Amino acid sequence: IHDGFLLVEGDADGELTFRHPDGSVYGTDASPQVISVHAAAYGALRQLGFRETESKQALARVRSLGGPCGTLEEVIKVALAELTTGTS
User: Fold this and answer.
1) Alpha helix stretches (DSSP H) within 1-88
2) Structure confidence by residue, pLDDT tens digits, 66-83
3) Integer Cα distance of 2 and 46 in angstroms
4) What secondary structure letter does DSSP report for 24?
5) pLDDT tens profile 5-46
6) Taking the C-alpha atoms of 40, 48, 73 and 36 in order, what is their torsion angle to the nearest 10 degrees?
7) 32 phi/psi in degrees, rounded to 5
């Protein structure tokens, strides 16, 4: 979880959903390459000093904007744009 290889989401009823780093539900077919890219992007954001929660939220927005595809560089660029929008 803390390395970005497993995402856990919960709701008010206590129901948990486990997801791969690309956002797909855990246990479904997921591309190992996409999983690797998103996990590496998460690690890079953390190394840049972004908090765990904000890094995960930025990558979730990346997935919602253009899906899980892209190179590591592309995913990080979009995530950084999401994290720095509105800041100077």
Assistant:
1) 32-47, 52-66, 72-84
2) 655 688 999 999 999 999
3) 10
4) P
5) 677 887 778 888 888 777 777 777 667 787 788 889 999 999
6) 0
7) -60, -35
pTM of the model: 0.68
- Name 24's Cβ contacts closer than 8 Å, sequence gap at least 6: 30, 68
Q: At what angle do helices 32-47 and 72-84 cross, to 10 degrees?
A: 40
The one-letter code for the residue type at 7 is L
| Spacing of C-alpha 35 from chain mean position | 9
Structure tokens that stand for 80 in this block: 């950084």
Q: How far apart are CA 75 and CA 63, in angstroms?
A: 9
CB 54 within 8 A of CB 83: yes
Instruction: Pick the closest to residue 5 from 54, 51, 48, 59 (CA basis).
Output: 59
Asked whether 8 and 16 are in contact (CB, 8 A), the reply is yes
